[in-house]
Protein backbone atom coordinates (compact mmCIF):
# COMPACT_ATOMS: atom_id res chain seq x y z
CA UNK A 1 0.00 0.00 0.00
CA UNK A 2 1.34 3.40 -0.95
CA UNK A 3 1.60 5.85 1.92
CA UNK A 4 1.57 9.60 1.47
CA UNK A 5 2.21 11.80 4.48
CA UNK A 6 1.48 15.51 4.37
CA UNK A 7 2.87 18.19 6.65
CA UNK A 8 3.25 21.94 6.79
CA UNK A 9 -0.30 23.10 7.34
CA UNK A 10 -1.12 25.76 9.88
CA UNK A 11 -2.82 29.07 10.53
CA UNK A 12 -1.74 32.24 8.78
CA UNK A 13 -3.14 35.67 8.09
CA UNK A 14 -4.29 36.70 4.65
CA UNK A 15 -1.34 37.56 2.46
CA UNK A 16 0.90 35.11 4.23
CA UNK A 17 2.68 32.01 2.96
CA UNK A 18 2.93 28.33 3.77
CA UNK A 19 4.80 25.41 2.26
CA UNK A 20 3.19 22.02 2.32
CA UNK A 21 5.22 18.83 2.02
CA UNK A 22 4.22 15.30 1.08
CA UNK A 23 6.60 12.45 1.67
CA UNK A 24 6.45 8.95 0.30
CA UNK A 25 8.79 6.09 -0.29
CA UNK A 26 8.71 6.13 -4.06
CA UNK A 27 6.04 8.20 -5.79
CA UNK A 28 8.26 11.07 -6.78
CA UNK A 29 10.06 8.69 -9.11
CA UNK A 30 9.41 8.09 -12.76
CA UNK A 31 5.94 6.58 -13.07
CA UNK A 32 3.73 8.80 -10.96
CA UNK A 33 1.73 11.93 -11.47
CA UNK A 34 1.25 13.73 -8.19
CA UNK A 35 -1.05 16.46 -7.08
CA UNK A 36 -2.50 18.58 -4.32
CA UNK A 37 -6.22 18.75 -3.65
CA UNK A 38 -8.27 20.59 -1.08
CA UNK A 39 -11.61 20.17 0.61
CA UNK A 40 -13.53 22.52 2.84
CA UNK A 41 -17.02 22.32 4.35
CA UNK A 42 -18.17 25.00 1.91
CA UNK A 43 -16.79 23.39 -1.23
CA UNK A 44 -16.48 19.96 -2.72
CA UNK A 45 -13.00 18.54 -3.16
CA UNK A 46 -11.10 20.39 -5.84
CA UNK A 47 -7.81 19.90 -7.57
CA UNK A 48 -5.23 22.58 -6.88
CA UNK A 49 -2.07 21.60 -8.76
CA UNK A 50 -0.37 18.61 -10.33
CA UNK A 51 3.05 17.60 -11.57
CA UNK A 52 3.78 14.79 -14.01
CA UNK A 53 6.83 12.50 -14.07
CA UNK A 54 8.57 14.88 -16.51
CA UNK A 55 8.09 17.93 -14.31
CA UNK A 56 5.21 19.44 -16.24
CA UNK A 57 2.75 21.28 -14.01
CA UNK A 58 -0.90 22.22 -14.08
CA UNK A 59 -2.83 24.62 -11.82
CA UNK A 60 -6.37 25.54 -11.01
CA UNK A 61 -7.19 29.08 -12.14
CA UNK A 62 -7.87 30.10 -8.56
CA UNK A 63 -4.25 29.51 -7.51
CA UNK A 64 -2.29 30.38 -10.65
CA UNK A 65 0.47 32.84 -9.90
CA UNK A 66 0.21 32.23 -6.15
CA UNK A 67 0.92 28.51 -5.68
CA UNK A 68 3.85 26.48 -6.98
CA UNK A 69 4.06 22.69 -7.04
CA UNK A 70 7.45 21.01 -7.13
CA UNK A 71 9.14 17.77 -6.19
CA UNK A 72 12.51 16.62 -4.97
CA UNK A 73 13.10 13.11 -6.24
CA UNK A 74 16.17 12.65 -4.08
CA UNK A 75 14.10 13.34 -0.97
CA UNK A 76 10.95 11.60 -2.24
CA UNK A 77 9.04 14.74 -1.36
CA UNK A 78 6.35 16.76 -3.10
CA UNK A 79 5.87 20.42 -2.20
CA UNK A 80 3.24 23.08 -2.55
CA UNK A 81 4.47 26.60 -2.01
CA UNK A 82 1.50 28.85 -1.25
CA UNK A 83 1.88 32.62 -1.33
CA UNK A 84 -0.56 35.52 -1.06
CA UNK A 85 -2.95 33.28 0.80
CA UNK A 86 -6.62 34.23 0.98
CA UNK A 87 -9.32 33.18 3.45
CA UNK A 88 -10.94 31.15 0.66
CA UNK A 89 -7.79 29.02 0.50
CA UNK A 90 -8.67 27.61 3.92
CA UNK A 91 -9.21 23.86 3.58
CA UNK A 92 -7.83 20.44 4.29
CA UNK A 93 -5.08 19.87 1.73
CA UNK A 94 -4.39 16.39 0.44
CA UNK A 95 -1.48 14.93 -1.44
CA UNK A 96 -2.38 12.37 -4.08
CA UNK A 97 -0.72 10.18 -6.69
CA UNK A 98 -1.52 8.01 -9.68
CA UNK A 99 0.53 6.02 -12.16
CA UNK A 100 0.26 8.17 -15.27
CA UNK A 101 2.45 10.06 -17.71
CA UNK A 102 0.31 13.15 -17.94
CA UNK A 103 -2.19 14.65 -15.55
CA UNK A 104 -4.10 17.89 -15.20
CA UNK A 105 -4.71 19.50 -11.81
CA UNK A 106 -8.07 17.76 -11.42
CA UNK A 107 -6.99 14.31 -12.55
CA UNK A 108 -8.46 11.26 -10.84
CA UNK A 109 -5.92 9.96 -8.36
CA UNK A 110 -5.56 6.51 -6.83
CA UNK A 111 -3.53 7.14 -3.71
CA UNK A 112 -4.28 9.72 -1.04
CA UNK A 113 -2.73 11.08 2.11
CA UNK A 114 -4.71 11.95 5.23
CA UNK A 115 -4.41 15.68 4.76
CA UNK A 116 -3.01 18.75 6.46
CA UNK A 117 -5.18 21.68 7.54
CA UNK A 118 -4.63 25.21 6.26
CA UNK A 119 -6.49 28.08 7.89
CA UNK A 120 -6.22 31.62 6.53
CA UNK A 121 -7.69 34.43 8.60
CA UNK A 122 -8.69 37.82 7.26
Walk me through what this model shows.
With about 120 residues, this protein is mainly beta. It has strands spanning about 5, 10-15, 20-25, 30-40, 45-50, 55-60, 65-70, 75-80, 90-100, 110, 115-120. The strands form two sheets. Strands 2, 4, 5, 6, 9, 10 and 11 form a seven-stranded mixed sheet that branches. It has a four-stranded antiparallel sheet with strand order 1-3-8-7, with no helix packed on it. A hairpin with a 5-residue loop joins strand 5 and strand 6 (about 55-60). The termini are far apart. The mean pLDDT is about 95.
**Low-confidence parts:** none
| Beta-strand residue percentage | over 45%
Kindly provide the radius of gyration, computed on alpha-carbon positions and rounded to a whole number of angstroms: 13 Å
The number of helical runs is 0
SS-based class: mainly beta
Number of strands: 11
Q: Order of SSEs, N→C?
A: EEEEEEEEEEE
Q: State the separation between the terminal residues, measured CA to CA.
A: 39 Å
User: Shape from CA axes?
Assistant: globular
Helix content: under 10%
Mean pLDDT: 93
Main sheet overview: 7 strands, mixed
SSE diagram, text form:
Layout: E1 5-7, E2 10-13, E3 18-23, E4 32-40, E5 43-51, E6 57-59, E7 67-72, E8 77-82, E9 91-99, E10 111-112, E11 116-121
Parallel strand pairs: 2-11
Antiparallel strand pairs: 1-3, 3-8, 4-5, 4-9, 5-6, 7-8, 9-10, 9-11
In short:
By secondary structure, the protein is mainly beta. It is 0% helix and 52% strand. The protein is built from no helices and eleven strands.
